[in-house]
Specification:
Pfam families: CENP-S (PF15630). This protein is an all-alpha fold and about 140 residues long. It contains 5 helices and no strands.
């Protein structure tokens, strides 16, 4: 049973390595076209291996950051902590994180409005407008 799990992990790791190798090959091809340089198959393989190993290190670091914070889930704050040595990467991750948070808030607000409308309830903004209308009509 344990051997089957280890074998499955090894197969998945090989598939992931192949995907990294393919992506690195595509990126190198783009650089070749843009910069008029050539990459040997050995250099592409070396870049792929280094990239895969660095990703493994990143994954372990992220897991440790979450574990240190007594969490089981890696958060964007963990990713920002990992990227802290590269100002441009940290800035990019922070920007994307803020965009996602903003988008999530908008989606939650839309859901809230939809569910209130379905129940016939008023949203806080609509309640405030109704109170203002009542106050105006009482003064007249």
């Amino acid at each position: 049973m344990a051997a089957a799990g280890a074998e499955e992990r090894q197969v998945l790791a090989q598939r992931l390595k192949a995907a990294v190798h393919y992506t690195v090959g595509c990126l190198c091809q783009e650089v070749e076209e843009d910069k008029d340089v050539q990459f040997s198959k050995q250099s592409i393989a070396a870049i792929s291996e280094i990239t895969f190993r660095q990703c493994e290190i990143f994954a372990k670091d992220l897991e440790m950051f979450a574990r240190h914070a007594k969490r089981t889930t890696v958060t964007t704050e963990d990713v920002k902590l990992l990227a802290r040595r590269s100002n441009s990467l940290l800035k990019y991750i922070t920007q994307k994180s803020e965009e996602l948070a903003s988008s999530n808030m908008e989606q939650k607000e839309k859901k809230r409005k939809k569910s209130s409308a379905a129940k016939g309830e008023r949203t806080p903004g609509e309640q405030e407008a109704a109170v203002t209308e009542n106050e105006d009509s009482n003064m007249a």
